[in-house]
Design goal:
By secondary structure, the chain is mainly β. Helices cover 11% and strands 42% of the residues. Strands 17, 18, 19, 20, 21, 22, 23 and 24 form an eight-stranded antiparallel β-sheet that branches. Strand 27 and strand 28 form a beta hairpin. The radius of gyration is 27 Å and the shape is elongated.
Length: 591
């Protein structure tokens, strides 16, 4: 019966594909670029509950040395249950992770994707609370790392950079290298992130390629430079990869670049200063670019041209484009996608693989650069360099361990670079886009209305169970924060708040979680609070005509309630305070 079912499914796919291929492929593709959805004031981070990735082939020059493929997973909350599984295997990893301590999960041999057909060589990661994930592929001293983006950051439309491998090799080595067809160009790896069959269209000249990806399946294609874009019905992850890109001394290094959907493109980029690299620009329209002594003129859509940018050898640069685009720094064995201004964040996690050569590059507004923190200490450095034609500066930071680099009042960019057979690395892991003066606030504050009527003690216990507290404003700002939320909810009935009278003194106090606080702010209505016999607990009526005033109510009354979860701050799980202090003091800026 299973074989019959498979045969029917296959026949249905064939019929669907044949019908789809009748669509006129000559019709011009009109790509609607949406201006970057994530502006400076909006949120961007790499936190999530569900991830999917694949491990492209890494042959390096040491073949047949066995590869080591692994995931570094860091949980935000303590007791986070993480499950890692392989779609076509019974292999499963599950563990309960601590907060703020990267845990390495080594995957079994044979996980690498080398086939040019659809397979289930995908790795799925899920968790009960937010985590961040970094993949590591190593063969001998050929190492690549990649920040695995959560499902929320994936998309359904990706423009493909036209990186011509032969042109690049000739550009760097001024000679023609004879390579087999298998390794003569880059590859596209397309991963179906959904538990549904996903229609994929690879837009290419002269004829599109149409495929149906099974749930959580992966498809690898050899590129020839005519691929323009990947479209899908449901979310996919797209990687640009090469298993053995030539470097000096008859050696090679694998490269991996996880593409961002076009909706995340921008027009301003922080380009890190890196030696001996060229700039590649991808755009769906003819555009101009400025900054970094870049050559003037108009760049054609989907150009394969490599741009010399000698100013990068002198320090970081800011590049601006006339329309949203995607940039890459490329050289043999190296691809890095610069962080656009719209994806600057306030807080980053840096998890180096090779502590001997690990370096972070930090880019911050010049006016606020002296307020950058590494873990709990200010980054002390006199080596900041201003970036020409911008309001930003950059500095290199030696890394001796895992660290959090953050800013309390503005957004920054952070890259991590390491050296093995060649330079590798890229943008650090973004934990939070929103600056917070206290630290790295990874989970924002949140109100929650409990619709089940309960007594005040029951509401207090329920809020303690699902959040932090039965909310009670401590000042006018918190009162207005509550008012704004209640206005958006449109409720028209009383809600419990976390105020009550002492049974001994009859004085009012705030019950904030397990802590008791004296009253320093009140917002009572007219005639309130009433006598103790008329009400020992407090409520708020969400109506602007009554000014959202407080009212005393008997504690046994059955009311809905308003719970509140405060900001959750990320902190590293360090072995001891002494080690933490040593670690902080060692991560300082340098030349």
């Amino acid at each position: 019966m299973k074989h019959d079912t498979d045969a029917i499914r296959f026949s249905e796919k064939v019929v669907m594909i044949r019908s789809l291929t009748k669509i006129r492929t000559e019709v011009m593709l009109t790509i609607l670029l949406i201006t970057a959805m994530l502006g400076q004031g909006q949120s961007w981070d790499s936190l999530g509950l569900n991830f999917i990735t694949a491990f492209p082939e890494n042959i390096a020059f040491y073949y047949p040395v066995n590869p080591v493929n692994a995931l570094n997973i860091t949980a935000v909350h303590a007791d986070t249950v993480v499950t890692v599984s392989i779609s076509d295997s019974t292999w499963t990893y599950q563990d309960t992770l601590p907060a703020g301590k990267p845990v390495t999960v080594t995957l079994p041999l044979g996980i690498e994707e080398y086939s040019f057909v659809q397979t289930l060589q995908t790795v799925k990661i899920s968790s009960t609370e937010c985590i961040v994930v970094q993949s590591i592929s190593q063969r001998g001293d050929s190492v690549q790392t990649n920040v695995v983006q959560p499902m929320k950051n994936l998309g359904t439309f990706y423009s493909i950079p036209a990186l011509n491998y032969s042109m690049m090799i000739n550009t760097f080595f001024q000679s023609t290298r004879n390579t087999s067809k298998r390794y003569s160009s880059y590859r596209l790896v397309i991963i179906n992130g959904e538990d549904v069959s996903n229609l994929i269209t690879i837009v290419k000249k002269p004829r599109n390629i149409i495929s149906i990806l099974d749930p959580y399946a992966v498809l690898q294609l050899q590129t020839d430079g005519t691929e323009i874009a990947v479209k899908s019905d449901y979310k996919v992850a797209v990687m640009l990869t090469h298993p053995c890109e030539e470097i000096s001394g008859c050696r090679c290094n694998m490269v991996v670049n996880q593409l961002y959907p076009d909706t995340l493109w921008d027009s301003s980029f922080a380009v890190p200063g890196v030696l001996n690299v060229w700039l590649h620009l991808t755009s769906s329209t003819n555009i101009t670019a400025t900054g970094g002594n870049i050559q003037s003129g108009t760049f054609e859509a989907y150009s394969s041209k490599l741009l010399s940018l000698p100013s990068l050898q002198l320090g970081s640069q800011f590049i601006n484009t006339s329309d949203p685009a995607s940039l890459r720094l490329v050289s043999p064995g190296f691809i890095v996608e610069p962080i656009p201004l719209s994806r600057f964040s306030a807080c980053y996690l840096v998890v180096p693989v090779n502590l001997i050569s690990a370096t972070a590059l930090v880019i911050a507004e010049t006016e606020y650069r002296d307020s950058v923190y590494v873990d709990g200490d200010l980054l002390s450095s006199t080596k900041w360099s201003t970036i020409s034609d911008s309001e930003y500066s950059s500095v290199l930071v030696s890394l001796d361990d895992t660290h959090v680099i953050w800013h309390p009042s503005t957004k920054i960019a952070v890259y991590v670079f390491e050296m093995s057979a060649t330079l590798y690395g890229g943008p650090a892991i973004s934990l939070s886009a929103n600056p917070d003066p206290v630290g790295c606030g990874v989970i924002p504050p949140k109100f929650n209305i409990i619709l089940t009527p309960q007594t005040w003690p029951e509401s207090h216990q329920h809020c303690m169970l699902i959040s932090d507290e039965l909310f009670s404003p401590s000042n006018k700002a918190e009162q207005m924060e509550m008012v704004d939320f209640l206005n958006s909810e449109g409720l028209n009935e009383r809600l419990w708040i976390g105020l009550r009278r002492s049974l001994l003194t009859l004085e009012w106090y705030q019950q904030k979680g397990k802590e008791v606080h004296n009253m320093t702010y009140t917002h009572w209505g007219t005639g309130e609070p009433r006598a103790a016999v008329e009400g020992m607990c407090a409520s708020v009526f969400p109506n602007s005509s009554t000014g959202f005033n407080w009212k005393s109510v008997p504690c046994c009354a059955q009311l809905k309630s308003i719970c509140y979860s405060s900001t959750h701050y990320f902190s590293l799980d360090l072995p001891s305070n002494e080690n933490a202090n040593n670690s902080n003091s060692n991560a300082k800026g340098n030349a």
